[in-house]
Design brief:
The chain has 15 helices and 16 strands. The protein is of the alpha/beta class.
């Protein structure tokens, strides 16, 4: 397929994206901005309450009516295949990029029938998700292998953001894998946003401010942050407090649990402004990322960019991403409490400098270039990429 003079139309279709969802929404936005800056014509198709079509800094964004997912706290999915197929036909993509290997897997066959090169982006571990939903380990692995085999057959390329995410495709012998990291906005998220007034809003002098920045849903295991806080305060006598930024179906349950245990937890809901998020992360002493099935963990990387170390789940893909700027914790309240204590035992200037240095490895420029390469569309010479 020859390349049009004004770049390729890269159509991206994603489910489980809401105005207040976290990592996926952030990644889609930055990738779209990067594709646009590289001279292409990105279009994003997502579910919503009603149809909309608008021009944005990440390119054209089309919202199609999507069915709510019960108990998900606002997620919707595109279930009307005819409407999606009709939209794709109207858009006539040069490349198709899909983020949902379950309900949207049929788009791979659509793309192949149209002669369009397609790529599925694996944003989660199917094995891990099935495990968090209660499937026994053996059953989860078997079901995941079947799902992943179908996905690998349906698309020209399966893109994974970490070796951890790629492992479940490698074990089934998939040969069409590509690797590309995600990134972090190094300008909007910076240690300079540390603010004594923001810190004073959540912690008194002498207290340790912990932050959980996460969607409050079962697979993220947000309750582990409360468990860690309880261990720190009662067993280790640490004057720690917790600020929780994020929305989701578990919020009321978590609030009730915090009240029952008499824990000093502030639930902030969704923070819409990037400056507000940056100030909170930069003003914290440590950030908790307890999700055991995270395949990249943008929230953890954003904390590092703000100069704040992160305790991450040992079961997730995050330990090699955060490196020595964070610590891998056992999946328990005691495990995360231990990691927090070890992180805070390091000199403050040293741990903050290490966090920022680690984040600087992951700029969005290199992420966009890697995604375009996976699409077999190298970044055009002489065109600027998206600024971090």
């Amino acid at each position: 397929m020859s390349r049009p003079p004004d770049g390729l139309r890269i159509v991206r279709v994603a489910n489980f994206v809401t105005p207040v969802s976290g990592g996926l929404r952030t990644a889609l936005r930055h990738l779209g901005e990067g594709y646009l800056a590289a001279g292409h014509r990105p279009v994003l198709v997502v579910p919503g309450r009603r149809r909309t079509d608008e021009s944005t800094p990440q390119g054209r964004v089309i919202t199609l009516p999507g069915r709510p997912v019960p108990g998900s706290g606002g997620y919707r999915v595109l279930t009307d295949r005819r409407a999606v197929a009709r939209t794709l036909a109207e858009l006539a993509p040069d490349r198709l990029e899909v983020s949902d290997r379950t309900t949207l897997r049929w788009t791979g066959a659509w793309a192949r029938a149209q002669g369009v090169r397609s790529m599925m982006v694996s944003h989660e571990s199917a094995t891990g998700l099935l495990g968090t939903w209660g499937a026994p380990a053996g059953t989860a692995r078997t079901l995941a292998d079947r799902l992943n085999a179908r996905t690998a057959r349906a698309y020209d390329t399966v893109l994974c953001t970490t070796a951890w995410a790629a492992a479940e495709f490698e074990r089934i012998g998939a040969t069409n894998l590509a690797r590309a990291p995600l990134g972090v906005d190094l300008a909007q998220l910076h240690p300079d946003f540390r603010d004594p007034q923001v810190r004073a809003r959540y912690a008194e002098p002498g207290q340790v401010l912990l932050v959980l920045c996460s969607r409050l849903s079962p697979e993220k295991r947000p309750e582990r942050a409360l468990e860690a806080l309880a261990v720190l305060r009662r067993r280790h006598r640490m004057p720690a407090v917790l600020a929780v930024a994020g929305a989701g179906p578990l919020r009321r349950r978590l609030e009730a649990r915090a009240a029952e245990l008499r824990l000093p937890v502030r639930f902030l809901g969704h923070l819409g402004g990037r400056a507000e998020v940056a100030a909170l992360l930069a003003s914290a002493d440590a950030v908790l990322a307890p999700g055991p099935v995270e395949t990249f963990g943008l929230a953890a990387l954003e904390a590092l960019a703000c100069g704040t170390p992160v305790a991450v789940s040992r079961s997730s893909a995050l330990p090699p991403i955060v490196g020595s700027a964070g610590l891998a914790a056992d999946d328990s309240g005691e495990g995360f409490a231990t990691a927090v204590r070890e992180l805070l035992a390091r000199p403050a200037e040293q741990r903050r400098a290490a966090a920022r240095a680690r984040a600087e490895v992951f700029g969005w420029e290199s992420a966009v270039a890697a995604f375009l390469a996976a699409h077999r569309v190298p970044t055009p010479v002489g065109r600027p990429e998206a600024a971090p």
